[in-house]
Amino acid sequence: MPIFSCVPFTCSGRVDVIEKRQCNLHELPAEVERSASCLEELYLDCNQICEIPEGLCRCKKLRSLSLGQNKILRVPPAIGSLIALEELHLEDNELSDLPEELVKCSNLKILDLRLNLLTRLPDVVTRLSSLTHLYLFETSLTQLPPDIDQLQNLRSLDVRENQLRILPPAICQLKHLRELDLGRNELSHLPLNMGSLEVLEDLYVDHNVLSAVPDSLTSCGHLRTLDVSQNDLTALPKEIGDLEQLCELSIAENRIAALPNSIGRLKNLVTLKADSNALTELVPTIGECSSLLELYLFNNQLTTLPATIGGLKELSVLSIDENQLEEIPSAIGGCSKLSILTLRGNRLRELPLEVGRLANLRVLDLCDNILAFLPFTINVLFNLRALWLSVDQTSPLVPFESAQDPVTRVKVLTTYLLPQGKCQEEAGLMHPRRVSAGVSVRFGSEEGASDEDESVGHFERKGTPHPKTRSRAVTPRRQSIDGHFIPHSDSNDNSDSTLSLRRKSAGDVPNSDGSIFQRSSQIESENSEYRSKAHHSEAEEVNGVKMPKSIMRNVSSTSRCHITIVRDAISGFGLSLAGGRDSEPFKVNDTGLFISRVVDRRTFRSSRIACRRQNTFCERRLSCRRASSCGLPK
């Protein structure tokens, strides 16, 4: 074979392919006319071309013509001379009609008219009997022609984002149609004989006003994708399980109250989006969908989950946010491949121990529940990259401490984010998150006094170190399939820093070397240095609130308080502390401590400390003493 035989041009300089996209052309390049006798493919998308010259129609061998995203107003009748044309791309121009001569392009298979202002489908289109792909996305169509069934070779029809209110019955006679996109129209119903589309594989009718799906649709045995989301459906066909090839089913944002029992027969179902409906229960047969990878049930009215959910061995994503769940079945441990589990905004009081069997779990979202603690088995989730307990949480993972369930005496885990807000509210311990600029530490002798009577100037306030608001941008929940999830890095780079942030708890038993008291002394010395550096800035602004000069003089004054907490031999100190240097949550240049958890309020009263909001211990020394005969230094 000669060395130059594969080069797509002849010695005369003529070529068979010209590609000049985004070249700011206002007319056809000169080489088109020079290569008219042999040109087969011409790509001139994204230019400034306003008309198709008659000279282009001399390209008798042209098979593919792409003129998308230009400013073409009309197609010349001479286009009918391109008898070899197979693909014509005219998307995003300013066309309103097509010439009748286009029917002479008898080999035309692909016609792309997207983003033009047609308002009606040109009559010539239904006479292009060889068409296999017709794209009419956003062309302001109000109806389809009644003779659309003449396109017997049509495989793909896209009429998304138009103003269609009704479909012609003839559309069900397109025997070779595999993909039909009717999304974002104004359809109130579908033809009753939709089941006649026997080879249909993908059907999109989302964002319409459908009140029902015809039962005949279950006869489309090759259907792989069905999207009926954002309609007005109250139920699905009872025999939807007959769609044995179905892989993706989206019924989100409807008014569906229950799933049909036959859904368990969908053995090939990979993704089920049933969020934002009126589901009150999940049918037990859901556990028979053996191929299910993603299950979205958020924003429903579910109160329980069936134990059969443990049969979803391939499940990777389970989203049940914003429901009314009070418990999770222990069978959840059977979902061994579960990677993302979101349970935000429910009424969960505890998690089953079996959650520790989710060895592949990477993200666990438990925000806005009423959890008092977590099962100790959380410790064995070695692949966990994010555990969200509060919307104010500053990092994906927080340090845990072991504790004991006072009721069952079972070992559990706790942290400064537990118990959750709803739990504290039910127990009468919940207080507003916002703290006034006044004093928040009170002593037993002042317990009966109101906040208004307390003077701001008793001691210097450094600001309660509440957890910081997450600064990362949150992806809108419906931007993607799982867009409401936060991506997390696979690396373990921050593992050491996470461990180093472990806070000291007042419930911990001090070491023999008195490490807790050494820390208290260190806080006092560090705070002395801190006062000299931060005195000026704190006098001007307290917790981000500008203060009048008269109050600033009071804020700058300081006093030292010694607080003694007696540790009970059984119940411990009855509180947990957070804050301090190298601990989380923290505030820049603030090494103060604050009470993050109250276990036994009687211990507080015996220590003459009133629990009100989150009491601030800024620049104060904390002394602890055992209740036993051997005293510890203050």
Keywords:
634 residues, leucine-rich repeat, mainly beta, three-stranded antiparallel beta sheet
Distinct helical segment count: 6
Provide the low-confidence segments as ranges: 1-11, 427-487, 491-557, 610-634
- The averaged pLDDT comes out at 78
Large-scale geometry = elongated
Give the end-to-end Cα distance, rounded to a whole number of Å.
Answer: 97 Å
What is the percentage of strand-forming residues?
A: 5-15%
The total of beta strands comes to: 27
Secondary-structure-derived class: mainly beta
Share in helix: under 10%
**Biggest sheet features:** 17 strands, parallel
What is the radius of gyration computed over CA atoms, rounded to a whole number of angstroms?
35 Å
Fold blueprint:
Elements: E1 17-19, H1 30-34, E2 41-43, E3 64-66, E4 87-89, E5 110-112, E6 133-135, E7 156-158, E8 179-181, E9 202-204, E10 225-227, E11 248-250, E12 271-273, E13 294-296, E14 317-319, E15 340-342, E16 363-365, E17 374-375, E18 386-388, E19 401-404, E20 411-414, H2 421-426, H3 495-500, H4 515-540, E21 541-542, E22 545-546, H5 549-555, E23 562-567, E24 575-579, E25 593-598, H6 601-606, E26 616-617, E27 621-626
Parallel strand pairs: 1-2, 2-3, 3-4, 4-5, 5-6, 6-7, 7-8, 8-9, 9-10, 10-11, 11-12, 12-13, 13-14, 14-15, 15-16, 16-18, 23-27
Antiparallel strand pairs: 17-20, 19-20, 21-22, 24-25, 25-26
